[in-house]
Known about the structure:
By secondary structure, the chain is an alpha/beta fold. Helix content is 44%, strand content 17%.
Amino acid sequence: MKINQYIDHTILKADATKDQVKKIVEEAKEYDFKSVCVNSSYVSFIRNMDKNIRITSVIGFPLGAMSTEAKVFEAEDAIKKGADEIDMVINVGRLKDKDYDYVLNDIKEVKKACGNNTLKVIIETCLLDDEEKIKVCELSKEAGADFVKTSTGFSTGGARKEDVALMRKTVGEDMGVKASGGIHTYEEAMEMIEAGASRLGCSASIAIVNGEK
């Protein structure tokens, strides 16, 4: 699979304008990226632009600390408006409290809202130790999620190949692993893929593709 088909072409910054979102969509079509990844308010705008483009919407972003009910509503609303995939942020504090039933239910309820739509669980690796990374990957798998994802890109760090490898080892080969945050070059993207990533979240997508040998 060519590297463009690993990439969710991403714009999540708070000051993103409609023109910038439209540009991301046009670039995704030109370069045949896997999807566009946006905040949920832009889902219907993109779907009205293009009936066929694959849309990923982030949910509970970027902190993950809102109620499960709020996440469920946002996921249902995004899917109703045309989202194909949902990237949700876990409740990091509840994980650190070892409130595993809460974290499991949080993911389960969003997955239920997603139905057959893909759910990726953002675990925010930069805030977790290895034991916590393993545990939340196990919980995500138990909850029926389709992917685990490294990072929002809005915290203290992004994707690291060591974390991707640990996540892949934990979830096995049947579940997706998305590396996201701080991937700027073709070489960095390939490091993540070689470590076990099956999807990449990137805003520097065109530079990555243009750097492909």
